[in-house]
Amino acid sequence: MTSAAGSNRSSRIAGFHKLSPRDRLDLVAGFAGLDEAQVAHLANMGNLDPMLADKLIENVIGTMNIPVGVATNMKIDGEDVLVPMATEESSVVAAVCNAAKQVYETGFFTSVSGNLMIAQVQAVDVADPAGARIRILEKRDEIKAACDACDPVLVSLGGGFRDLEVRLLDTPSGTMVVTHLIVDTRDAMGANAVNTMAEKLAPSIAAWSGGRVYLRILSNLADRRLARARAVWKAADIGGEAVRDGIVSAYEFAAADPYRAATHNKGIMNGISAVVLATGNDTRAVEAGAHAYAARSGRYSSLTTYEVDKDGNLSASIELPLAVGLIGGATKVHPTARACLAILGVTTAERLARIIAAVGLAQNFSALKALATTGIQKGHMALHAQNIAMMAGAVGEEIDRVARLLVERASVRMDVAQKVLEEVRGN
Ligand code: NAD
């Protein structure tokens, strides 16, 4: 079955999914012509049991280790918290630590709007959409009973069906009747929970609407599950009024311009996705929700706001959907996620969402402060220089020496790093 790299290679491999991770790896190695070191590297699954990895996704051949750093200085609702963050990007963890340090005295204050998720059921070819909407709304009690019957565990924990909405959408192929099932999913992200309910109700909705039902799935625009955080950085603690005003101006730029807002919000997600990943939650679900929420007015804008308060200090806030859980997906089964949740000491999904919102705000504050003052490259480059040094071949103590020299020479470039490494080795 194995073929040498470059000759008669076919990606159609019958029964690939039935092989063990090691057998799949050998096959892939033959296909791609991997050397022994590469195969040995991929075969080392680190701290994730190969059997578990093989259960989490399909066609597993290895794992991808991403560093987990810990953000310090975070005080959230009066409680000190150490926040694990999984990211491959340098400066992200440091940015959160720095922002939190400058507001440690008062810290961050957070809240959530609830744990409500939305599942959508799409009905098409409905002759009387307005009438169908009313007929479905009349069935609220029946719908609640059917949803709750799908998940007795959730109901026993105080969750389950909460509300019903029916929206009419004008589309090129006619008016669609879209039913929203609004469900409290407690400490679960809730995708599977609400998808099951939507599928269960689909035949009834088809009958009540007189149309045909197609899609039955959650919305990642979880705007009934908003997390919020706020903090006030004292002008004197952040370098004075000029820095404060620079940050406000940077925010106003993002609020007014989607080109800037995309980068502004990317920085926020540097922090948020890192905690979401470290806790085994679904980064794509959170990112989709965040960006959709940022565009809710019809124009993509900032997820944070910055104002000068009556005392002349910088009042900052963030609000975004945060569908994260402590149960379901990888959160309960991935040992690293479990350990990270233990570091956070969270016992509810709400608390996790609140901490994540605070991290997003901290991240954003640091980025705006750097951009409004020295620019991000100064802080970024010191850490980036280490990556460049490693790419140039530096190992062990050489990494720091080469990185320091690159920064001193204000030339963090691969070609320079190679020359510097030769110098260091020549000494
Ligand atoms: P899940 O179905 O694995 O677990 C949730 C279930 O656990 C609940 O339905 C409930 O029966 C039970 N439960 C036990 N204790 C609970 C508690 N304290 N609070 C709430 N429920 C409790 O997980 P899920 O959260 O429904 O689904 C999350 C997974 O779905 C993620 O892996 C995500 O990647 C995936 N997913 C996402 C999308 C999307 O975002 N578009 C689509 C499909 C699947």
TrEMBL record:
Looking up Pfam families in the UniProt record yields: HMG-CoA_red
Q: Where is the signal peptide?
A: none
Please provide the record's keywords in A-Z order: NAD, Oxidoreductase
The reply on keyword Endoplasmic reticulum is: no
User: Which InterPro entries does UniProt cross-reference here?
Assistant: HMG_CoA_Rdtase, HMG_CoA_Rdtase_bac-typ, HMG_CoA_Rdtase_cat_sf, HMG_CoA_Rdtase_CS, HMG_CoA_Rdtase_NAD(P)-bd_sf, HMG_CoA_Rdtase_sub-bd_dom_sf
EC main class here is oxidoreductase
Q: What is its EC number?
A: 1.1.1.88
Q: Does the keyword NAD apply?
A: yes
Enumerate the catalysed reactions. Answer: (R)-mevalonate + 2 NAD(+) + CoA = (3S)-3-hydroxy-3-methylglutaryl-CoA + 2 NADH + 2 H(+)
| Record GO terms (molecular function) | hydroxymethylglutaryl-CoA reductase (NADH) activity
Domain of life where this protein originates: Bacteria
Report the family membership: Belongs to the HMG-CoA reductase family.
Q: What protein does this entry describe?
A: 3-hydroxy-3-methylglutaryl coenzyme A reductase
Which source organism?
Answer: Xanthobacter aminoxidans
At the highest ranks, the source species' classification is: Bacteria, Pseudomonadati, Pseudomonadota, Alphaproteobacteria, Hyphomicrobiales
